[in-house]
Amino acid sequence: MKSNCCFQKCINAACGATFDVREIHVACPSCGDLLDVVYDWDRAKPPKLLSAFQARWTNRRNPLDFSGVWRFRELLDFCPDEYKVTLGEGQTLLQSSPGVAAYIGAKSDSVFLQYEGLNPSGSFKDNGMAAAFSHARMVGAARVACASTGNTSASLALYAARCGLPAIVFVGSGRIAFGKLAQALDYGAGTLQIAGDFDACMRRVKEASARLKLYLMNSVNPFRLEGQKTIMYRVLEGLGWEAPDWVVVPGGNLGNSSAFGKAFMEMKELGLLKRLPRLAVINSTGADTLDRLVNQKKLTWQRGRYDRDAIAADWKWQDDTRRLPHTIASAIEIARPVNAAKCLRALEVCDGVVRSVPDSEIMDAKAQVGRYGLGCEPASAAAVAGAKRLVEEGVIDRDARIVCILTGHALKDPDATVGYHTGNYPPGKEVHGERPFANAPVPVADDIEAICAAIEAQR
Ligand code: F0G
Question: How far is the CA of 151 from the centre of ligand 1 (A)?
Fold first, then answer.
């Protein structure tokens, strides 16, 4: 195995410690910062043209060629094929949406939705799990664990079930959508409902993993983010290997945005992509830490010498003021994003911006995504609501090519959807807004006259 073909490296420029790819770390043992997977590209030998990857997709008999993650394997070549795991993830499509374009206020043929809900567990997390489970197998992990707002736990539970690895997931009690909880239970993961929110789960799963030697699958695991880079390769593929003008993505723990930034950084370094897209990361106003760090506190990457104290001070301020995140978009109800630093790098690489949008706009955008024939969960719709905001602000041009990442399937959180359409949100998750796109069910008597009248009234 060419383990010298790639290694792990601390992102903190003042540290820069490196580690073998077979070591298991979720933070730099020297300084505590995040780790990256770094490649020796001469040995990994990626093709000279991105389009060379395209031919593999038709090769359905080879699971690694068919996987939307592993068909790009030379760009994430950290383990031999024998360990690679795939459940057919990444068969996701970039779809043009004139209806959503009209809603956003952009040119009709220039808005595209990358629907990651089509993955085996119904969210983009499967891209990351395919990669992280491959690493887990390579290093002989015995048990896997994560903290989750729901989708990570669903995805981890599915891949663990396929790999025959025992799984433990930490979820905030009452904090995750039922579709996601149902998946974790069904796929057989030990499910701990912690009396706390996601940030509490994250802290505790790190402690428990260190103590019990659980292999941690959250996005602090650098191998997971390698899998999530492939979402961008597929977006480029959908556009004939040209970058869009904008990629708009919801921001929670900031793994996705960090992975996208790394993908573009590497493609530029390799000369595979001349022009990079700009990146917009969208928070909910009820969980707007990144927005505050970037737009109020003006934090930037500073070539890996970013202001760590400012982040620590923000975490402390949250403690002191007892500020807790609250949003209908439960997937991004996160106040202490573990990948904040890598996201700052992504924002620099892609000349990015950050915005937050209120729950009412998220739910309106979600209804429009559904109305025009795709459907997504609330967190995903934050990308669409954010794109609309940025077009209104004039930051995104009306005729720019815009790609919104729809991170999770509509069926993940039916309570939020029914809440919007009926006006009866789940207790504690009420959203105040006019609901202009509500499509409430119509109660009708068991009577054919009344039924026909109700049908005619729908016209
Ligand atoms: N959209 C969905 C549907 C998600 O599940 C998540 C994160 C995000 C967006 C945000 O992505 O963390 O990479 O910025 N869900 C995690 C979970 C935190 O536990 O399922 P991010």
Answer: 7
